[in-house]
Amino acid sequence: MPARLLLVEDDPAIARTVIYTLEREGLHINHSLLLGDARTLIAGTRFDALILDVGLPDGNGLELLRELRQHAQHAAMPVLVLSAHGEEIDRVLGLELGADDYVAKPFSPRELAARVKGLLRRAVTSPPVATATVADANPFRDDALGQRMHFNGQPLALTRREYRLLSTLLAGAGRIHSRDHLLTAAWGDDSESTDRTIDTHIKTLRAKLRAVDASCEYISTHRGMGYSLEIAKG
To answer: Which residues are recorded with the post-translational modification 4-aspartylphosphate (predicted)?
Structure first.
C-alpha cells in the first residue's frame, strides 16, 4: 500500500506542484486548504505523514501541530512544516513543538520529495526494544512496534523525537547518555539540531512524566556529561 499523506496548504499553485511531485513518487496525497478541514480528515483517516503550511486562512498551522503532539493517537505522526517566511523563529518554534522537518518557501519540489521520503523511511525504523534493568520496578513499557510509550499503565502523548529520546534512555537505563548520542538516536546523523534542542525536549519529557507521577524525577542531569534514566525509585 502506498503511503498516505495529508497536505495542508492554501496556495493552489504550490499544492498542485507538491501533489504532482509526490504522486510521481508513488505516494497518495489528500489535500486540505483549511485547518478545520484538516482536523476533520485527521480524525477519520490514518495518515503516514503530514505536510503543514504555517500561514493558513483560518489559523496558524503550528496550532494544529501543537494539538497533534498533545494526543497519544497522533503524537508520533511525522510532520514536515512549510513556511513562507523562512524566519528562524518559525523554524525553532516548529521544531520545539515537535515538527520532524522544516522547509522554507520557495523550495525545490525534488528537495521536498527527498525530505518526505526521508521522514517516511525513518518512521518505519523502530529503535531497539527496551530492556528493563529492574523489571519488577519498571513503570515504563515501550511498544517499539507501535512507537508508543506507556508510563504507569498510561500511554504518553509523545512526539516522535520525545519517544525516541525516552526509548533510548530506557534501553540504557542507569547509564549516562551524552547529548551527541541522544541527538543521533532521535534526529539521525544528518541532524542540524543542537544541544539546546536536546535540553528543550528533555524538559518537556520531564513535564509529561511529572503529570503522571510527581513523586519521582526519573530523568537525571549529569553536568557536562548528559542524561540518564533511573527506573528504580528510592
So the answer is: 53
Per the CATH hierarchy, to which homologous superfamily does domain 4-123 belong? Answer: Response regulator (3.40.50.2300)
pLDDT of residue 14: 94
Q: Which bin fits 174, alpha (ψ -120 to 50), beta or left (φ > 0)?
A: left
CATH of domain 135-229: 1.10.10.10
| Residues in CB range of 67: below 8 A, 6 or more apart | 39
How far is 217 from 69, CA to CA, in rounded Å?
22
**What pTM was estimated for this model as a whole?**
0.59
Nearest Cα to Cα of residue 97 among 125, 75, 130, 73: 75
pLDDT in tens, 58-92: 999 989 998 988 887 787 889 999 887 656 666 67
Task: Report the pLDDT value the prediction gives residue 94, as an integer from 0 to 100.
Answer: 75
DSSP 8-state assignment for residue 113: H
